[in-house]
Inverse folding.
């Protein structure tokens, strides 16, 4: 599909598939973040494992490592194949970040990482901690009292606020979450119940982020978690890749030049899918093919990449209203850090209509008895439309993948769902026509 047609379809909020013409071979792509930075993040999360076990007993079974299972979903694969009369070559898996401890979404990776890193920095500076300590000591009144002198702020459409709010409150920080108009009511209620100060805005995500950023200016005791620029958030997400690599090995899923890996990740501002993508490409190089999925009304990453304007363009600039049921993906302007990385690492994109999210939600529930939230369901646009897209078929041909597809593994990244209250879940399932 040529660029003009992509633009036309994007403007009219029609679903598109897009293969990235700027994708470079892994050895030539853009690497602004080093392996050492990712190792350092991974080591920090390991140091914090005893704190997590102490403050969140739900993490004891995984020894304080906040990680999700990788689950085969053969019934979902069959359901998709029968519903759309297609053959999806290879196997289909679900990465269950919907079930991540503490925050019930992919935000448990980046959000929690950035806050514990900030806490560690403060405590080491104040001589209340050294990296050799057993970090269970952080779960104490003395430390909570000290951290209570500091404030963490974040702008959020919901899940980032939940993740940052819950972990910050557990550490004793004051915390303010600036919520955009898209945020679901239950997410605000849950946060308030944990003592988090929730501020509501009539505007979109960028406006909530701006409000938080302003509030933290000129104060050394206020720290803003900046989803549009944060390297620390990115690093927290990136740690997912080495862990996925181990899971693939343990489950004897081969990824090499004759066994391609396809990964489909819902994208909002880009931080979560971007960090995961970047670290996966470092590990699996040209054998991994990463696709982002965005709502037809909020395709900010696709727009940034296709226009070459990155964060300098927003979806309203092309006449979209930016509203979507996929609250986690309701973002009008992409991350500047991630869009520049995606430019040479991302295989392509799918956009998806809101109505399809509920369809996929129903499919997954009927076939596997797994519930994930609507934003998460965007991932299934990849496998569901893999075959009938000429863009994707051209990609397969150009990369010489056609004869390897039967050996391929497809992973849909389930990005959230565990904290959805029962009545809301019921409503979603009704909407999915179960
Ligand atoms: C935040 C979120 C995403 C996307 O992450 P970004 O960092 O905003 O791109 C996807 N799904 C869910 C459920 C989310 O909460």
């Amino acid at each position: 599909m040529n660029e003009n047609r992509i633009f036309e379809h994007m403007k009219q909020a029609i679903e598109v598939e897009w293969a990235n013409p700027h994708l470079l071979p892994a050895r030539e792509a853009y690497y602004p973040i080093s392996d050492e930075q990712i190792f350092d993040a991974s080591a920090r999360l390991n140091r914090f494992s005893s704190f997590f076990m102490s403050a969140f007993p739900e993490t004891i079974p995984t020894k304080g490592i906040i990680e999700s299972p990788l689950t085969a979903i053969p019934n979902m694969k069959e359901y998709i194949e029968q519903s759309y009369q297609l053959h999806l070559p290879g196997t289909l898996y679900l990465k269950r970040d919907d079930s991540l401890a503490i925050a019930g979404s992919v935000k448990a990776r980046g959000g929690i990482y950035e806050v514990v890193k900030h806490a560690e920095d403060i405590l080491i500076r104040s001589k209340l901690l050294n990296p050799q300590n057993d970090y269970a000591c952080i779960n104490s009144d003395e430390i909570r009292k000290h951290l209570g002198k500091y404030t963490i702020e974040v702008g959020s459409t919901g899940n980032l606020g939940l993740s940052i709010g819950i972990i910050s409150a557990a550490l004793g920080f004051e915390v303010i979450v600036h919520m955009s108009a898209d945020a679901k009511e239950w997410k605000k209620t849950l946060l308030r119940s944990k003592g988090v100060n929730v501020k509501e805005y009539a505007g979109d995500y960028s406006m909530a982020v701006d409000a938080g950023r302003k509030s933290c200016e000129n104060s050394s005791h206020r720290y803003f978690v900046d989803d549009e620029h944060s390297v620390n958030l990115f690093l927290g997400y990136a740690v997912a890749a080495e862990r996925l690599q181990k899971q693939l090995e343990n489950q004897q899923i081969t990824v090499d030049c004759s066994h391609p890996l396809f990964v489909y990740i819902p994208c909002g501002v880009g931080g979560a899918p971007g960090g995961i993508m970047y670290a996966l490409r470092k590990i699996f190089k040209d054998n991994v093919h990463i696709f982002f999925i965005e709502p037809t009304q909020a395709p900010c990453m696709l727009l940034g990449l296709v226009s070459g304007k990155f964060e300098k363009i927003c979806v309203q600039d092309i006449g979209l209203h930016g509203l979507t049921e996929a609250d986690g993906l309701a973002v009008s302007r992409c991350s500047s850090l991630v869009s520049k990385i995606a430019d040479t690492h991302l295989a392509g994109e799918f956009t998806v209509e809101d109505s399809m999210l509920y369809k996929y939600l129903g499919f997954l529930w009927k076939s596997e008895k797994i519930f994930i939230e609507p934003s998460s369901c965007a991932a299934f646009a990849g496998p569901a439309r893999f075959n009938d897209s000429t863009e994707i078929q051209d990609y397969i041909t150009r990369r010489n993948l056609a004869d390897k597809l039967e050996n391929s593994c497809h992973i849909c990244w389930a990005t959230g769902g565990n904290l959805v209250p029962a009545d809301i879940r019921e409503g979603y399932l009704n909407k999915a026509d179960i």
